[in-house]
Amino acid sequence: MSDTFDAILIDRDADKRQSVSTVRLGEADLMEGDVTVAVEATTVNYKDGLAITGKAPVVRRFPLVPGIDFSGTVTASSHPDWKPGDKVVLNGWGVGETHYGAYAGRARVNGDWLVPLPDGLTARDAMAVGTAGYTAMLSVMALERHGIRPEAGPAVVTGAAGGVGSVAVALLSRLGYQVIASTGRPAESGYLKDLGAAEVIDRAELASAARPLGKERWAAGIDSVGSNTLANVLSMTRYGGAVAACGLAGGMDLPSSVAPFILRGVSLLGIDSVMAPRPLRLEAWRRIATDLDMAKLNALSTTIGFADIVRAAHDIVEGKIRGRVVVAM
């Protein structure tokens, strides 16, 4: 096993101009932590795309190895829960933002941030899920905790051809929901219906300024877009329904009104995947292993190599990526 490994490093000069380069690092270059992991697979999320392109201030220390997700094998540990040979998954916790992340051959992290790779899943499977799919599962679980069930009515998924959206469509349809998929890429209608969408609508239907209340169209929603899209989804949610908000691809603003909340009893459920407590993570990954159709997971994911990460990061920000991207390390 080589003492050094390839890594992507983001840095910034005195004028705050960001640069991205591929470098060789050793384990001595890694940050503090009580578990070292050989990274076997990672992924490119929208957040990773923002980090590498500098389109948003995801990276908050420089230099930094980006990459917010990884799966691999423990090589060294002083943490009581982990020993060499254990298969683990990491999502979030500031990794790839303030702590050296996944885009390197090794990662050293706090063992409390890790969860076991579920039985039956490979490292590649886990990264086909990644933060996007794990967030989709957290969103489904939040809707269930709110009491939303398939018999309540349809569920809308925005940004449906993206990572979160693709997994959300697959999960909801497997659980018995009638799924309405909203996308700006009509050419992906066949792909979305193969994942389980009953209906595909153009995102333009949800992109204009929202009325305080619109026609009631769905009982639930999973939104990764924000802005006008989320405002429209809320305005069209049925009485007593709920929407899980987990992304901001369309903007951080929410130009809505209180009308859906006080006239229809609609609930807006905030989903945070980065700092979610361990019990919630363990439940989400348990549910992923049992509730996500692996054939559909394979259909919605593609595999690239380490050398393709930077290009994929640009593509995902530009809306050119469908579904999930796995990086085989």
Structural notes for this entry:
The protein is of the alpha/beta class. The protein folds into two domains: 4-117 and 299-328, Medium-chain alcohol dehydrogenases, catalytic domain (Quinone Oxidoreductase, Chain A, domain 1); 130-270, NAD(P)-binding Rossmann-like Domain (Rossmann fold, 3-Layer(aba) Sandwich), CATH 3.40.50.720. It is built from nine helices and 15 strands. It has helices at residues 46-53, 123-145, 163-174, 189-195, 227-235, 259-263, 278-291, 294-299, 309-317; strands at 4-12, 18-26, 35-43, 69-77, 87-91, 106-109, 114-116, 155-157, 179-183, 199-202, 218-223, 237-245, 267-270, 301-305, 324-328. The strands form three sheets. Strands 3, 4, 5, 6, 7, 14 and 15 form a seven-stranded mixed sheet that branches. It starts with a strand and ends with a strand.
Over all CA atoms, what is the radius of gyration? 20 Å
What is the fold named in CATH at topology level of the largest domain? Quinone Oxidoreductase, Chain A, domain 1
Mean pLDDT: 96
Number of strands: 15
Distance between the termini: 14 Å
- Tell me the name of the CATH class of the largest domain: Alpha Beta
Architecture per CATH nomenclature, i.e. the level-2 architecture of the largest domain? Alpha-Beta Complex
In brief, what are we looking at here?
The chain is α/β, with parallel strands linked by helices and 329 residues long. It has helices spanning 46-53, 123-145, 163-174, 189-195, 227-235, 259-263, 278-291, 294-299, 309-317; strands at residues 4-12, 18-26, 35-43, 69-77, 87-91, 106-109, 114-116, 155-157, 179-183, 199-202, 218-223, 237-245, 267-270, 301-305, 324-328.
